[in-house]
Design brief:
The protein has 252 residues and is an alpha+beta fold. It is 47% helix and 21% strand. InterPro entries: AraC-bd (IPR003313), AraC_XylS_family_regulators (IPR050204), Homeodomain-like_sf (IPR009057), HTH-like (IPR037923), HTH_AraC (IPR018060).
Length: 252
C-alpha cells in the first residue's frame, strides 16, 4: 500500500504477516502493546504477526506512508541462508524505529514490488530482512511475552477459526470453551488482544481478501465470509484496510 490519509481511522486489527509502515510525511498515531505510539516522517512502524494495533493521523494535514507485508515463511527462508542467525523467527521489541537504513531498505522492497521485477524483489527482500534482523529485531523470551493461554480460551479460538462464517452466540462459544461468558471474554482479550467478536470479524475479513483474490464479486464474498450483506463487508473492510473491496480487487 502507498496512501495518504487525513480523516481515516483504522479499527483495531492485526496482520498474519510481519508488517512494516514507512511514514513519508506527517505523523501517524496508534496504540500497540498497551501504549500510545507515534510514527513521524522518516520512521518505521514494525508489527509482529498477530500484533493488535489501530491508527489515525496525529497531525491536521494527515500522513503519507507505504506499507509492506512480509510473510513469516519468506522471512524464515531468508534467515535460513544467514548462518550467523539463530533458529526461529525474529520479534520486534519496539513498534516504532527511527532508523534511516531500515527505512531505505524497506522502501527499496516496496519499489521493486511495484515494478514487478522478480529478481530485484528477491534481492531487495534479502537486504531488507538482513537489515531488520540486525538493526531492529530481538528474540529474548521477555520481549513479547504473554501469559500462557488457558485451555478454555484456546478452545474458543480454535472454534472461531473453524466456524468464523457462522453466526456464533456468546452462550454457544462459552459452552464450547467450558467457562462463563465473562471469564471467556476477559481471558480472550488478555491472551489475544481482541474480544471474541473482533477476532471473528478479522477472520472474516482475511477470508474476504482471499475470496476477492480468486475473483469472487464483493456480494459473493460477503455471503461466503459471513457478512450480512455487501454494504456490511464494505464498511468493515474500509475500516480495517483503508479501501473498499472493489478498490482492493481492482488494484490486485
Amino acid at each position: 500500500m502507498h496512501a495518504h490519509f487525513e480523516q481515516h481511522v483504522y479499527h483495531r486489527h492485526s496482520h498474519d504477516t510481519y508488517s512494516f509502515g514507512l511514514t513519508e510525511s506527517g505523523a501517524q498515531a496508534f496504540t500497540c502493546r498497551g501504549a500510545a505510539r507515534t510514527s513521524a516522517t522518516g520512521m518505521v512502524m514494525a508489527f509482529n504477526p498477530d500484533e493488535p494495533h489501530d491508527g489515525h493521523s496525529a497531525v491536521e494535514h494527515g500522513f503519507t506512508y507505504r506499507m509492506v507485508h512480509i510473510g513469516p515463511d519468506l522471512i524464515a527462508g531468508v534467515l535460513a541462508d544467514i548462518a550467523e542467525h539463530p533458529a526461529g523467527l525474529p520479534l520486534f521489541a519496539e513498534p516504532v524505529l527511527d532508523d534511516p537504513v531500515l527505512f531505505d531498505a524497506l522502501r527499496r522492497v516496496h519499489g521493486t514490488l511495484r515494478e514487478g521485477n522478480r529478481l530485484a524483489q528477491d534481492e531487495a527482500l534479502v537486504d531488507a530482512v538482513r537489515a531488520l534482523v540486525h538493526r531492529g529485531a530481538t528474540r529474548p523470551p521477555g520481549v513479547a511475552q504473554r501469559p500462557a493461554v488457558r485451555a478454555e480460551v484456546r478452545r474458543a479460538r480454535e472454534y472461531l477459526d473453524a466456524a468464523f462464517a457462522e453466526d456464533v452466540s456468546a452462550d454457544e462459544l462459552s459452552t464450547v470453551a467450558g467457562c462463563s461468558r465473562f471469564a471467556l471474554h476477559r481471558g480472550f482479550v488478555a491472551a489475544y488482544g481482541f474480544a471474541p467478536s473482533d477476532y471473528q470479524r478479522q477472520l472474516r475479513l482475511r477470508a474476504a481478501r482471499r475470496l476477492l483474490d480468486t475473483g469472487r464479486t464483493p456480494a459473493e464474498t460477503a455471503a461466503e465470509a459471513g457478512f450480512a450483506d455487501q454494504s456490511h463487508l464494505t464498511r468493515w473492510f474500509k475500516r480495517y484496510y483503508g479501501i473498499t473491496p472493489s478498490v482492493y480487487q481492482y488494484a490486485k
